[in-house]
Amino acid sequence: MTNELVEPLLAGNRRALARAVSEVEDRTVASRGLMAALFPHTGRAHIIGVTGAPGTGKSTLVNVLARTYRTAGKTVGIIAVDPTSPFSGGALLGDRVRMRDLAGDPGVFIRSMATRGSLGGLAHTTADVLMVLDAAGFDRILIETVGVGQAEIDIASAAHTTVVVEAPGMGDEVQAIKAGVLEIADVFAVNKADREGADHTAMALQMMQGLAPSPAAHHRSSAGSGPAHPQPGAQAGGSWLPPIVKTVAVRGEGVEVLCQWIERHAEHLRATGQLGRREEARAASELDHILRDALLTDLTHRLPPGHLARVAAGVARRELDPYSAVDQLLLDYGFRR
Ligand SMILES: Nc1nc2c(ncn2[C@@H]2O[C@H](COP(=O)(O)OP(=O)(O)OP(=O)(O)O)[C@@H](O)[C@H]2O)c(=O)[nH]1
Ligand SMILES: [Mg+2]
Q1: Which ligand 1 atom is nearest residue 92's CA?
Q2: Which atom of ligand 1 is nearest to the CA of 60?
């Protein structure tokens, strides 16, 4: 039944796409068949995670990045993951950042996802929605997550290229460290560069990278000054030093440079074979998740009604410790021989 969505979706029909995304979000029975049918058409989009502390300007940046890609003739899918407000719906990007200029564009598809169940579940659903957008043929997919917890970090690190957004004036600390997203950055954006302290923030990030701030660091953009530290980007030996790009998202400043770095990183991943490795890691984590789900569902179906509650009551009465209880459950109803 759902498979009637496949053909129009692949042909670029937006209504079919929106319906398919809803099916996947709701985890309908039919969505499995849908995913299976769409899967062979995935693997073409470059996936860009945009993460950072609340209010750093992620949505604004995503908006301008999308416009930059549209100008370059690329189609863009946008997924906004908002763990804080379950009721924001489509309002997340629409209200705070006027997306109206993107909204009427058939080359752009925006989906806002609020937390429904667990965050772990959200990471899983996001991966599925990503797959649908990929199959629909979007050249670039931008995912905005607030870098506040492990699940958001998982979502962000599922991307091919992760942009970590930092903004000055949020205290002395580099927020990315607090949020635990420093390590997953492929590109740093120091947004709100129109504000005081942007240079300081950029310098702090540079120091984090282990690059001692030499006086030349002030002039790193002026060519030919022969800096003592390595240039950002692809390094000899195949590693990548995340560039630090200053942006003023509200005015669109620096976003083209940011876009160029994202594209360079994409090229680096392809050239070094790291894209394939990232895809494998992504597939492994997806399999892990689906397998856990499937095993748990299977086991739950095998248990007599009310059995789990009875075991839990026994544990609560201290008749049995929870580990032994699970051992016993697996022995009686599971896959252990
Ligand atoms: N001065 C200045 N303000 C900016 C800039 N970029 C964004 N803002 C403002 O910062 C505020 C937050 O921007 P958002 O794009 O909503 O930030 P966000 O990171 O998506 O926020 P959350 O999704 O709530 O975490 C808005 O009022 C923006 O107008 C910038 O470059 N300079
Ligand atoms: Mg936002």
Answers
A1: 23
A2: 15
The pLDDT-based confidence of 83 (bands split at 50, 70, 90) is low
Ligand 1 neighbourhood includes 54 CB (under 6 angstroms): yes
327: Cβ contacts below 8 Å, ≥ 6 apart: none
Type and span of the H or E element at 146: strand 140-146
Structure tokens at 152: 């958001």
CA 32 from chain centre, in angstroms, equals 22
| Average pLDDT value for residue range 177-198 | 87
Q: Is the pLDDT of residue 216 over 60?
A: no
**Does residue 286 line the site of ligand 1, with CB under 6 A?**
no
pLDDT band at 245; cut points 50, 70, 90: very high
8 Å CB contact between 164 and 176: yes
Of the listed ranges 211-220, 255-264, 283-292, 299-308, the least confidently predicted one is 211-220
Ordered DSSP codes for 191-236? --TTSTTHHHHHHHHHHHTT----GGGGGTTSTTS--SSPPSEE-T
pLDDT tens by residue, 4-34: 999 999 999 999 999 999 999 888 888 989 9
Q: Are 110 and 78 in contact (CB under 8 A)?
A: yes
Report how far residue 193's alpha carbon sits from residue 195's, in angstroms, rounded to the nearest whole number. 5
From ligand 1's centre to the CA of 110, what distance in Å? 18
Q: Which residues contact 303 (CB under 8 A, 6 or more apart)?
A: 329, 333
Amino acid 74 reads: K
